[in-house]
Amino acid sequence: MTPRIRTLTLACATAALAAPFLTVPAQATATPPRTGFEESDGARWTSQPEEQRLLATVDKASDRMSVSRLGRTKQDRPLQLVRIGERRTKNTVLLICSQHGDEPSGREACLTTIRDLAYAKDRATREYLKRTTLLVVPTANPDGRAADTRGNSDGLDINRDHLSLATAEARAMAAVIRDHRPDVIYDLHEYGSTPKYYDKDLFDLWPRNLNTDEVVHREARTLSKAYVRPAAESDGHTTGTYGIWTDPVTGEPIKQTAGDGQERILRNMSGIKHAAGLLIESRVDPLTDAEKNDEALNNRRRVTSQLSALDGLFDYTGEHRARLERATGAARAEGYRDHGPVYVGGADNDPAQPSEVIADPPCGYRLTAAQYADIKDELALHGVRVKRQKSGAYVPLRQSARALVPLLLDERATYHMVTARPDMGC
Q1: pLDDT at position 8, please?
Q2: Rounded (5°) CA angle 5-228-249
Q3: Tens digits of per-residue pLDDT, 93-121?
Q4: Is residue 146 within 8 Å of residue 48, measured between CB atoms?
């Protein structure tokens, strides 16, 4: 059995009614704290000071939870990682919440999930957390959340920075992925609907990048189609594939507006780094006249759809833990075989053109001293293995990050960071 987040959320929120979450110093308490969103019944989003107080309170109250700092933003807000588990486990699930600051529903779902799992006493939750460690970045873009903007304080879209790692926010996430090697990377967002063709309550999408290991790709699709979507639909939410317009009569795809294979996007980078990635997009726009007339009602639906989808994630990881571990473990080892093409374009629904396939990759890439000095920190954050040389550095392809190396260093890759010299003397 796996924990049911919606049930836990309702139980914790009800218990907290007797002791509402006040702006007082954090202290251990048997009563679960409430978010600002819950206190206002969805009329406003949880503020960052409220988030910090909640995390501090829960951290002190629960032995199964810890909070660590990954870094700070340009405006000096903390980037934090929450770890929840009964013990250290091989199986790890990572939630990335609200990379886009003006998409807050995923963050609210993450905060209540952290609280509920930390306080839960039921046997199913305890057994789940003995076998799976949950990692959560509760606010991946604190500056953007404070300003209610998509980008960070420099106006940069963090979800287009998971290759070059120019932002403090993306660097923090890369370090978490490198150090913890999650089996699932679950990325929570929101979207604006298009009437008739693109208006589901909840969309999701797996890694489309063609460098994603076939078995990991299959697990990500299973997570989506057999678990996340059915869980949302069981609560009355409509679901679909992100970025695909469909005919309302036939249900057939008629247009693709997003969801390409760009390696800069976390969903695709998840696959490149051998995790079953999944992008989640809840609908911002009101669904009914009642929601149009009551913003709080609309906000609550946005958050509850995220919580419903999270139930599907926990069901999947509870039931397919061993299979998932085998898939991600094999994918990480595959790079050491140093076999097969590397793709610099295309997607699972868009076959790569000949110019987008490195059919016979080099043994590695040679960096000059200046090139290595320019990108050595980013290589380290990505977990790329490098051999130092007097003339600079050598980056072999025979490593777990095999597919990532050309995307960073080969001039044929659209977003490469430097043009390194390929070594064809294999």
Answers
A1: 66
A2: 130
A3: 999 999 999 999 999 999 999 999 999 99
A4: yes
Rounded Cα gap, residues 331 and 93, in angstroms: 17
Residue 379 to residue 163: CA distance in whole angstroms: 10
Residue 251, judged by CB atoms within 10 A of its CB (0-12, 13-18, 19+), counts as: exposed
Structural tokens at position 372: 């290595």
- Number of helices followed by number of strands (H, E) in the chain: 15, 16
End-to-end C-alpha distance for the chain, whole angstroms: 50
Over the range 317-332, which residues count as b (16 or more CB within 10 Å of their CB) and which as e? Answer: bbebbeebeebbeebb
Using alpha carbons, list the distances in angstroms from residue 350 to 20, 218, 370: 51, 17, 37
Band (10; pLDDT cuts 50, 70, 90) = low
Residue written as token pair 């009329």: 43
- Distances in Å between the alpha carbon of 412 and those of 51, 311, 368? 44, 41, 18
Mean pLDDT of the chain: 93
Backbone conformation region of residue 383, classed left if phi is above 0, alpha if psi is from -120 to 50, else beta:
left
Q: Tell me the β-bridge partners of 276.
A: 184
Largest CA distance in the chain: 71
pTM of the model: 0.94
Q: How far apart are CA 408 and CA 419, in angstroms?
A: 9
Q: Which helix (H) or strand (E) holds 204?
A: strand 202-205
